[in-house]
Structure formats: C-alpha cells, structure tokens
Amino acid sequence: MLELNVMGWPRLTRAGRPVAVRSRRLLFLTYLALEGPVERRRLAAAFWDGQEPEAARSRLRLELHRIARSDLRDAVVIDGETVAVQLTCDAVALADAVRAGRWAEVADLARGPLLAEAAVDVPALQAWLEAARARYAGWARDSLEQLAGAADRAGDAPGALEAEQRLLDLDPYSEEVCARVLARLHALGRVQDAATLEARFRIRYRDELGAAPRLPSSAQRSPLTPERPAARRPSLEAPPFVGRDATLRALDAWAQTAARVALLTGEAGVGKTRLAHEWTGRRGERALVLRGSQLGQGVPFSVVGECLHHIGEARLQALAPVWRAELASVWPDLAPDQRARPASNLPRLLEAVSEALYVGLEGTLIVLDDLHWFDPSSVQAVAHALNRWRLPGPLRILATARPGELNSHGPVLAWLDDLERSVTLTRTEVPPLTEMSVLNLIRQLSGSHQATGFARKLHALSGGNAYALLAFLQGLIERDVLRAPEEEHLPWTLTVDLDHLDRHLPSTLRDRLVQAVSGAGRPALRWMETAALLAPPFDFQAVQAGSGLTEDDALTALEQATAHRWIEAADPAGYRVRHDLLRHALQHQLQRERKRVVHGRVAAHLIRTAGAPAQVAHHLQQAGDRSGAVPYWLDATQQAEAVWAHEEVLDTLAHALECEDDANRRTDLHLRRCQHFKALNDLGGWDAELGLLAATLQGTSEASDTQRLAYVRERTHLLWRSGDHAQALAFSEPWSHGAVTPERTALLHDRAVILYRDDRTGEALKILETALADLDPAWTRLEANLHNALVLCCLELGLIRRGLAHAEHAIELFGNLQLRDGLASAHANQALIHAALDDRAAQRHALETALRHATEAQNIHLQRQCLESCCDIATEDGDWPRAATLATRGLELSELMTDHTGIQDFQARLTRLRSAHRPPPTHSNPA
C-alpha cells in the first residue's frame, strides 16, 4: 500500500521506495486523505475554482482518467459520485492521535508544517490548505504544551525543557515561550546555553520585527498585557507600515535599473496603494498621481481628466494657446478663455494632454494607481506622453494593479507587453502580510509586547489582507470585544476568551464593512449606499438626490463618512469611496428594488443638471428604463467618436444593444460597431460582431436590402483585409447583381479593388466603368470613389492620360464634399500618375497635399503611406534634413499607434539617412 507523508516535506512511498508524483497530484491525494470520500462536484469546485461547473467536472474526469493509467491507480477509489483514497497518511494518523489524546504521538508525527513549501494558484484550494495548516500547527503546539505539563508533573525537567524548545521552534518569535525556555535552562544550571539562546532570539526578533523583545521572567500574562506602557503609538486611522521591507528594497533596486516602469500586483486590500505612497514619500519626491475607477472605464480620458483637474486651471495657464485650445475641446472648464470647438485630430489631442501632464510634474515620478481600471484613452495618452517627454532625469512610473482585472484589460495588457519587450518594465508581487508582520502591527497598535495568540487569530481571520485586518480590528472595538482606551499609555485588552474571538465577528469581510456603516445610523448607510453606485468624482447633490435624504441628514451623513474615512476628496470638487472593497460590499447588500430606485433618482438628477450622457444612460439602464437609456448611450457614443476613442465607442454601443429590442435598430448598432473594430484593426472582434449581425438578420424579416447589403460589404471587406481574396469575391458575387443602388454600387467598387489587387486589372476596369456609367449623379461620394479606383487601374494598364483625368475628377468631387480622407487618397494616386509622367515637381506637390489632408483626417494608414513616399522623394533629391524630419514623423506616428512594422521601417530609414549623411572622418597630417 502507498504511504503518504505530508507533515513537513511531502513524499510518497510504496514498500519504502519513493514514488514519483507531481506536486498538484500530491495535493490531490492529500485533500482526499484528509477530507475522506468527496463528492465529484465538491472536488471539481475545489481544484478548478473559477471555471464553469461543467468545465471543472470535465477537468476532474480527465485527471481521474490519467490517475487510472498511472502507478496510483490502486490508491484512488471511485464509487459513483464520490472519490476516495486507499493509503496510509501521517496527517490522518496525527488527527486520530489528537482525538485520542495521544500527545506524544502527535508531537512525534508533527515533523513540520502540512505540505511544507507547497503553494497553489487556485483561491479555494489555497484557502483550504491554509486552514488545514493552521489546524495542524495548532495541534502541534497543543501537544508540546501537554507534554511539557506532563513532564513537569512527573518531575522530568529535561523532558519539559525539550518540549518547550520544540515549541519555540514552532513559534520562534514568542517572547512568552522563550522566557519559559530561559527559565528552565537557568534552573538546570545551563547558564551559558541560556545566554546564547537569548542573544540569538534578540537578534532574530529585532531583524524581523524591528524592535527589542521583552522577556519577562515570570507571571502569567494576558496575551494583550504589556510589560511596561508604551509612550506613544499609532492608531487605526493612521496604522503603522509593516512587513514590506523586501518590497521596498525591490523598488529601491528597480530605481537603479534602466527599467522605467514598475508594476505592483496584488489582490484588493493587500496594500498596494499604501506601499506606493510610502515608497514615493521616502524618496522625498511628489509624484503625479493618476487613479483608475471601475465605473469610469467607459468614459474617454476619464482618468486623465481627473488628474488635469487636480493640476488645475491656474497651472495649465502655462500651456501654449494651441494646446489649451485642444484641451478645451474635451474639458472646457480647464481653458474657459478658449473658444469651444471639436478636437483637431487624435495626435494633436494626445500631444495637448502630454503637454498638460508635463505641467503637472513636480519631479520625475508618476504613480498609476488601479491601472486595471484605466479607460483605454487614458492608457493611450499616458503611453504617448512617455514617448514624448524628455526630462532632465530618468522618468519613473510606479503602477498598481490587481492581476485578475488586469488580465481582462486588453489595451493595458498590450501597453505592458510593449514595455516588457523593450525591457522597460519590472513586475513585483505584493503578497499578504505574514503572521509575523501582523504580530508586529498588533503590538504597535495595542501597546502590547505579547499579543502572539491574538495576532495569530487575526492573521487567520484576515488572511494577511491589510484592509480586512484593520476592518476586523475596528469591528472588535465597536462591539467592545476589544477595548482600546483613549489614553495612549494604556494597552488594549480583550473582554472575551481568545478561542471565541471569531464568534464576535461577521463571517465575511463584506458583512463586516456593511456592519460598520450601518452602525453609524440609517442616513449614513443610505448616503454611502448611493455613493457606492456613482462613478467618481461624484458631488454632494447627486448623492443627496439618489439617497432621498433631506439636506440636513445628507450633510450629517457626509460628515460621518468623512470622519470614518469611508470617502475622500476627488477632483474636481467631488468625492470618491476610499476603497473598492467597501464600495462592492455596499453595492452587494443593496436590495434589488432599492437599488433600482436609487439609480432612477440619480438619473433624474443628472438629466436635470445636464450630466454626462454615459452616466445618465448607465443609471437609467440600472433603474430598468432600458428604452430611455438608448438615446443617452448614443449621445455618449458620439462624444467618444469625437475624440477617436474606439474602445469606449464599442463599450457604449454594447450597452445600447443591451437596451435596444428593435431588430432594425440593433442591426444598425452592430454595423456601427463593425466600423470601430475595423478602425482598431481588430479582425477577431470584427468577425465576432459580424456573426452577431448575421444572427440578428436571420431572426428578422424586417431588415431592409440596404442593411443586408451593408452586412455583405462588411463581410467582404473583412475577408479582403484578412487576405482571403477568393473567398471575398465568392461571398459577394451573388449580391453584385440586381437593381442599381448605392449599396450595391459600393459593393461593386470593393470587388473591383480586390480584383485589381489580384492582378486582374482588366476585369476591375470593366466593373468600375460600368458602375460609373450606371451611377445616379446624386451619389457624389460613390462617384468620387469610382474615379479614384479607376486611377490605379488606368495606371496599371498604361492609360496614363485617362488616369490623370480620373484623378482630377476624384479630387474635385472629394473637395466639394470636404472629405479629407478621400482627398488624401486621390492626391496620393495623382502623385503616382505624375511619377509615371516623370513630372517630379507635380509628384512632390501632390504627395505633400495628400499628407496634409491625411493628417487633418486623422487617417493613420494614409499618413504613413504619404510619409514614406515623401521621405523617398526627399532622399532621392538629396534633401537630407527634410527626409530625416519626415522619417521622424513617421516613427512617432508608428509609436503612437504601436505599429511595429512602421516603427521598424522608419527606424531603418533614419539609420540609412544617418549613414549616408555622416561626414567622412578627417585625418590630421603628420608633423
């Protein structure tokens, strides 16, 4: 039979010979051994936590199948829906010995912690392992206490000393146990051994806890009774900073490297923000702080906007008028002297934001707090600023994020991947506080030099989460279980037995947080419930309107929330809930109907005060008014489109789809989303959206031919963009015949362009000329596009003069329509005709005109194409400075859009230009 030993370093043997087994499978066997027969459902949930139940059960079936084909097949027994093991296990034997009171056997089996050094990345399984370790560690301590007591009663002083020494090994920072061991050594006349032990204990204690230990010689003391009063100690409102020396050293080391960005990752409440604040404070430098918000992710530039309002209008006066005008297009209150107008284009807006953030810098340090909740536009703005700034010292960025939320944020992950590829990012995990760190914290807060058992209990309850730990402490104080006198020289005292401490606390942190707010009274609870539903920064009037409180009650509640530090000030002139764990707890406990009512009140208030459309739409949707939310989601979409925030547009349109029931309008929303996936070059998202659109069209008979042809064009264009030209032509062919309509003519245009790309220029020319002949004169834009496509076909077939005429027609029509994209494309095609006519001056003029229109249109693809062509002409003309300027612009544009191909191309151009223009080395004549 297999023998499983898991106390201390784990090992699996059969007849004394080791059996090789993976660590996770060893944990699987241990779980079954300790828990007994386990239902498949429970086993799957424990080992594959976070997956769908069916997926977890599938993974379990696969694992059991693999075990059945391994050397462990005789150890695992499956009986229908239950799974068990047949083996001997030292941990099971230890538990049996505890129940029988065989303490010598328990002490013998407790060779170390359960599954020493084992770690898992599944939350439910990790929680089970930590709880089991704590249980077995407690039994080990109990056994040694019992053995020491039995030895004392038998007059066996050496035996009692041995038990106490083993107890000190288990609890190496316990002053109480150390004091008892020292007393026993002295009683046995081993003075030198006692001196050596005390010296080593003091060094270990000081290195770990940063204080000198207190070693009382006698007296049975309460765990919270100090040997002598503390002169002054910190409070729960401003708790001491403990247990982060290793992380601080890691950040200090990072500051000496070439990596510009450090990312602190850890779960909510573990202390990432406090750590970042402490580190920046120790450097003596004021950091520029940008902070993300979950409820603000769908609003373009929301993070940047709050930061700019914190910088303030007065300081932003230092900006050049051109940049203040760009800022005024998004935040009119930051530049009230500027005339309101739309933003010029995305690069100029990003440059304005970059210049404004630069004004806010007071050193070379930036903190990006809760990076996982940055809106995509703010991520883009920060990335652009980093590429543009040239500071006197090395710029440092310290970011904090939660790994779970971070992994679902595409734009942030893409940016971090870029930083990692360029070796400018270092990652550091912020773990929960250790048991010793919690002991240090409790001793500083309580004024006690003992508190070992109390700290151990609090560590188990909180899991080492700093925010949870402080919340539980506050709860004990509020319930008078823990008495914390106002006089600083008096220690905290417990009013209940330590073993019963957890009975006086709610079972979850969420319940504890709600309990704390409820204890302040009904107005405070209603005020905080409403605040938890609002995107920061929220104002007092919005919270009062949503809560339904009178002005006096709302003001009182605001004072209470501020005094308890549940909220904090946020720019501009608003507030935010201090911690997301509190916000989530308050949201979770709100009853469904009350939540709907609060959302409805907030929506009504925002409508009266002309609030942001995205926020109005969100609250209307949450209040159940889906149809009323749609126009506001569309208004928010227009606002996001005005600043080229494609990711945020996709988000607002997704919400509009959630609220829209009409099939025709849903079709239009899907088509609109396709355009933004296309702009992002997200072919996967585009394809998925077309799948949803196809399902919508199949489910309705009311869709128009225009909508169906629009779908065909989108699918054709996607196949074309994906490189599958044959499939694009085959898919669109059945739809290319029929009545002449704008949509069908546009489809013919796309088919002709695909044929041209496939070197079937003659067929393309015939389709375009036929479409042009059948065209309604009122369809001016289509006519311009057909002429523009004919330019390329004529050029390919050597019909140069016809091509020039088509180019001139296209330019005239696009000009009448004031379509910058079309003008840029038409002028670029005209430049090709002039090149074929060997008219260098006309070619250069056409390209420069195309570049100007492409820049004004914010068409990145055309800008890059024109910059390449202009750079080539300047190089051929020997105009090295202009060629370098154009290549630099191309490189900056490629970096802005994270276009790696463009970055490599323009970098190569700059390298060639430097080599070609480098003056030859000079040699001095010999004397």
Number of helices: 43
* First-last Cα distance: 94 Å
**Shape descriptor:** elongated
Tally of strands: 16
Approximately how much helix is present in the residues?
A: 55-70%
Average pLDDT for all residues? 88
* Sheet with the most strands, sense and barrel status: 5 strands, parallel
The strands making up the biggest β-sheet line up spatially as 9-10-11-8-12
Low-confidence stretches: 217-231, 922-927
Class by helix and strand content?
alpha/beta
Rg, nearest Å:
35 Å
Beta strand %:
5-15%
Write the layout of secondary structure elements.
Elements: E1 2-5, E2 11-14, E3 17-18, H1 23-35, E4 38-39, H2 40-47, H3 53-68, E5 76-79, E6 82-85, E7 88-89, H4 90-100, H5 103-109, H6 123-153, H7 157-170, H8 175-187, H9 191-209, H10 245-254, E8 261-265, H11 272-282, E9 288-291, H12 302-311, H13 313-316, H14 321-328, H15 346-360, E10 365-369, H16 376-388, E11 396-401, H17 403-406, H18 410-421, E12 425-429, H19 435-446, H20 452-462, H21 466-478, E13 482-483, E14 493-494, H22 509-518, H23 522-531, H24 540-547, H25 551-563, E15 567-570, E16 574-577, H26 580-589, H27 592-608, H28 613-622, H29 626-642, H30 646-659, H31 663-679, H32 683-698, H33 705-721, H34 725-732, H35 742-757, H36 761-773, H37 780-796, H38 800-817, H39 820-836, H40 840-857, H41 860-876, H42 880-896, H43 900-917
Parallel strand pairs: 1-7, 8-11, 8-12, 9-10, 10-11
Antiparallel strand pairs: 1-2, 2-3, 4-6, 5-6, 13-14, 15-16
